[in-house]
Inverse folding.
């Protein structure tokens, strides 16, 4: 299994958009603002480090226009703006616009999914910020981060080598099993939010039998506010796919016989974006774009040549 996206901001696919109770037309009345939002989102999603000028421009749009509604900028741009606010903006700004978004939803000017998504972002950001004090086990944090760096170095976009990736996963499995045996699933308070999230990425690159052991412990951490619900969604989908069952959140991509990345089967597709929004995941159309954009060059061709069935 493979993961290329760092967990900085909302996570990452095929264009399925659920429109809920929006009476306004999806044709923009302000095409200039719609184009500005699209440009800002494309820029934000392509940059590893947030650009202060971009962040400032997003806030300025709210000061000038309030929530850009479907009637104002069209369905996709309205949704894109809410996604933009969830990317790297201070939680104080999210708390400021959340009531305005709720009012727009109540007036049927915005889809309810947008409010669910931003609410989930606020909840998770608040939990993470409250957990950013010195972790209880900094040595374990550093061990996880070292493993994560090795893991990601085998999954670079340039010169991707499936054999090297497999060797790294097998080698690191011993250490990852030891961490789980000694500490369970590391929590935010134990290692900090970053390392806790990165540990889940590591486990997702291991066989399904290991993930099945980790999954209920991860759910316990989520219920205690010590793990990200989006991480649980991601691992849940990995396990489902490995067990030949439909995934729930659309997080798992595979190489098709045509050599393209596509999501493995998904249950109840009509409500997919609703489920994603509830745990703070990007709309599927944007997630699909990012998965493909961040995949190594020739990924599916190299996987096919190696004879492996590697999942994204």
């Amino acid at each position: 299994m493979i993961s290329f996206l760092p967990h900085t901001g909302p996570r990452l696919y095929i264009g399925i958009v659920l429109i809920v109770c929006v009476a306004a037309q999806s044709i923009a009345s302000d095409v200039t603002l719609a184009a500005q939002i699209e440009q800002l989102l494309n820029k934000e999603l392509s940059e590893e480090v947030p650009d202060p000028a971009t962040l400032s421009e997003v806030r300025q749009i709210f000061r000038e226009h309030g929530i850009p509604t479907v009637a104002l900028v069209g369905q996709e741009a309205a949704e894109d703006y809410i996604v933009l606010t969830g990317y790297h903006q201070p939680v104080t700004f999210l708390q400021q616009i959340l009531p305005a978004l709720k009012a727009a939803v109540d007036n049927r000017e915005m889809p309810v999914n947008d409010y669910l998504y931003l609410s989930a972002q606020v909840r998770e950001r608040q939990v993470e910020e409250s957990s950013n004090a010195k972790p209880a086990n900094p040595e374990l944090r550093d061990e996880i981060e070292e493993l994560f760096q090795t893991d990601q170095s085998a999954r670079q976009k340039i010169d991707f080598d499936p054999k090297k990736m497999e060797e790294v996963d097998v080698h690191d499995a011993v250490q990852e099993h030891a961490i789980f045996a000694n500490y369970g699933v590391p929590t935010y308070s134990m290692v900090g939010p970053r390392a806790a999230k990165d540990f889940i990425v590591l486990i997702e690159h291991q066989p399904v039998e290991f993930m099945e052991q980790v999954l209920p412990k991860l759910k316990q951490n989520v219920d205690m506010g010590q793990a990200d619900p989006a991480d649980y969604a991601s691992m849940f989908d990995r396990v489902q796919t490995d067990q030949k069952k439909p995934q729930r959140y659309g997080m798992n991509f595979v190489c098709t016989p045509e050599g393209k990345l596509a999501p493995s089967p998904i249950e109840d597709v009509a409500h997919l974006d609703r489920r994603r929004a509830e745990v703070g995941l990007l709309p599927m159309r944007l997630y699909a774009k990012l998965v493909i954009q961040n995949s190594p060059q020739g990924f599916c061709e190299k996987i096919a040549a190696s004879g492996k069935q590697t999942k994204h």
User: Anything to note?
Assistant: The chain has two domains: 31-110, 138-268+294-306. Residues 1-25 have pLDDT under 50 and may be disordered. The longest strand covers residues 253-255.
